[in-house]
Design brief:
The protein has a single domain (17-146), classed as Electron Transport, Fmn-binding Protein, Chain A (Pnp Oxidase, Chain A, Roll), CATH 2.30.110. With 155 residues, the protein is mostly beta strands. The longest helix has 9 residues, at 3-11. Helix content is 14%, strand content 46%. Strand 9 (111-123) and strand 10 form a beta hairpin. The chain has 3 helices and 12 strands. It binds flavin mononucleotide (FMN).
């Protein structure tokens, strides 16, 4: 199978964009842009995302007891680019409040989930992280959409 065609096919699946957040004891509050978020289970309430094995913050995210998932609103595309930069994952005070488990919670996010790490599984060149949702904040906004390598709104 041709790898670039595979990438292109995966990019043709429209997703939302999230910031996965954590407060690391040493590094402080962190945020990383991801589109691998997915729902898993209603009872118990489980969601997942996956992190590249090469990430500088692999250990932080696979070993933390709690983390946050903020789903971006349509007007927050600039934050997606900002928190996707290598070495650019320090969560800036102007973008976040402190969430229920101490994790950064994005201001004006479409949805914010507070999660307890439930399980971590190897998945090829990624680790799949399953989180149990402990708390959530839902705002009546329009989500940001990622499709074909670009950002869009629902309209
Ligand atoms: C739209 C978009 C989606 C992304 N989704 C993921 C993802 O699901 N998992 C992941 O590990 N990195 C994802 N990334 C890459 C990270 O945001 C970040 O660029 C990468 O982790 C940088 O490496 P570092 O963690 O070593 O700083 C995505 C980036 C973009 C722009």
């Amino acid at each position: 199978m041709d790898l670039s065609q595979f990438r292109q096919a995966l990019g043709s699946f429209a997703t939302g964009i999230c910031l996965v957040t954590v407060t690391d004891e040493t590094l402080g509050p962190l945020a990383m842009t991801v589109n691998s978020f997915s729902s898993v289970s209603l009872e118990p309430a489980l969601v997942l995302w996956s992190i590249q094995d090469t990430s500088d913050h692999l250990q932080t995210y696979t070993e933390c007891p709690h983390f946050g998932i903020s789903i971006l609103s349509e007007e927050q595309a600039a934050l997606s680019s900002h928190y996707a930069q290598r070495g650019g994952h320090a969560a800036l005070e102007e973008h976040f409040i402190v969430g229920p488990s101490g994790e950064p919670q994005l201001i004006d996010a479409h949805v914010h989930f507070t999660c307890a790490t439930h399980a971590t599984y190897p998945g090829g060149d990624h680790q799949i992280i399953l989180g149990e949702v402990l708390d959530m904040t839902l705002r009546d906004a329009s989500p940001l959409i990622f499709y074909g390598g670009g950002y869009r709104g629902l309209s």
